[in-house]
Design goal:
4-stranded mixed beta sheet; about 35% helix; alpha/beta; about 30% strand; 8-stranded mixed beta sheet
Length: about 350
């Protein structure tokens, strides 16, 4: 009996010892940025991978931190060679178990071949999760990861807290690297990735990069993106700003849609309802409240209609993302457009019906 207990204690001590050695031999990036750079001399492209590291004391009190820089950028033809370069330069292994964010440069998104290689390499990482938050760096991902002076430490932690502070979205709707992987494999949905731009030495979300059928379409405005999120029932609340200084926060949102086949092509009807609270001014009578409700409904409907038509014509985007619901909503349309998402998105039309009830007047 005593021998068994002694063996168990010795085994536990042995395991603890191994863990501390492993931590000292590993580096734990909290964020990674990936850019493309043309190697003119060799006539090929190089990846520029930037790493954002925490103080290892945050992970283990036994971690040594004095010889680990908080940030580093390395280049190579692919992620494998970048990681090998890191190991050779630091004598440490990269461990992605604590990753918070991945930032891709716009030039990476514009090169679908390189993007596929990056996603394939990430899929093959044993300790790389698919739920890591995804961002685009306006211009350069490396520039975003270097903005640590005003963010008080790790950029990965800062970006995580930035997303946590966004209360407009429903839970679990933050775009992740796994969503882009699904785009690559399925190529049947609209994906909006937050775009980070430097403002006051801090990264700020200034738009959303649209990816449709694994093709990068470009950057949409925050306003356009919020309307897309609204139509897809991804928001907890939506702020409407009218042309007459009407600012109304619409909550308790209920969004439903239906799709039918018509002579002109697929037609989606979106019903949106919610409770509104004025953020500027107050109405003084029931008649004024009624007039304001109808004005908001009319103008928001027209606003959504205009955005839907603009994005369809400019990018071939269906702001309702209805293609992915065809199997459950309209079997005939599903079979008609199976494997033809681009054709569907160019032909689909939308109509919107908005109902807002003001609560404070």
């Amino acid at each position: 009996m005593w021998k068994k207990i002694l063996c168990m204690v010795w085994g536990m001590l042995f395991l603890c010892g191994c863990e501390s050695v492993e931590l000292e031999e590993r580096s734990f990036p909290l964020a990674v940025g990936v850019d493309l750079q043309e190697d003119i001399q060799n006539e090929e492209q190089q990846l520029i991978v930037s790493f954002d590291f925490p103080d290892l004391a945050q992970i283990s009190e036994k971690g040594k931190t004095t010889d680990t820089p908080m940030g580093m950028s390395l280049e190579g033809p692919d992620l494998y060679h970048v990681e090998k370069s890191y190991e050779n330069n630091t004598n440490r292994l990269l461990d992605y178990n604590h990753m918070k964010a991945i930032v891709l440069g716009e030039n990476v998104m514009n090169d679908s071949s390189q993007l596929r290689e990056i996603l394939l390499a990430w899929e093959q990482q044993e300790n790389a999760a698919r739920n890591i938050s995804l961002f685009l760096g306006k211009g350069s991902a490396a520039e975003i990861l270097s903005l640590t002076q005003e963010t008080e430490g790790s950029m990965g932690k800062y970006l995580e807290e930035m997303l946590d502070s966004q209360k407009d979205f429903r839970q679990n709707k933050i775009v992740a690297i796994g969503n882009l992987m699904n785009q690559w494999h399925n190529q049947d949905e609209l994906l909006l990735i937050p775009v980070l731009t430097e403002q006051g030495n801090r990264p700020t979300i200034t738009g959303y990069g649209a990816v449709l059928n694994f093709e990068y379409k470009g950057i949409l405005s925050v306003e356009e993106s919020m309307e897309i999120f609204l139509c897809q029932n991804l928001l907890e609340k939506f702020t409407y700003e009218g042309t007459e200084n009407d600012v109304v926060e619409i909550s308790e949102l209920q969004v439903t849609s239906s799709v039918e086949d018509t002579k002109e092509g697929p037609f989606v009807t979106v019903h949106i309802s919610g409770k509104g609270r004025r953020k500027t001014g107050r109405t003084s009578s029931a008649a004024q409240q009624y007039q304001l409700e109808r004005r908001i409904e009319k103008r928001l409907t027209a606003q959504l209609q205009a955005t839907a038509e603009k994005l369809r014509q400019d990018y071939g985007i269906d702001i309702t993302n209805s293609y992915i619901t065809l199997g459950g909503q309209n079997r005939g349309l599903y079979l008609k457009y199976k494997g033809l998402p681009d054709q569907y998105n160019k032909q689909v039309r939308q109509a919107f019906q908005v109902k807002v009830d003001l609560l404070n007047w």
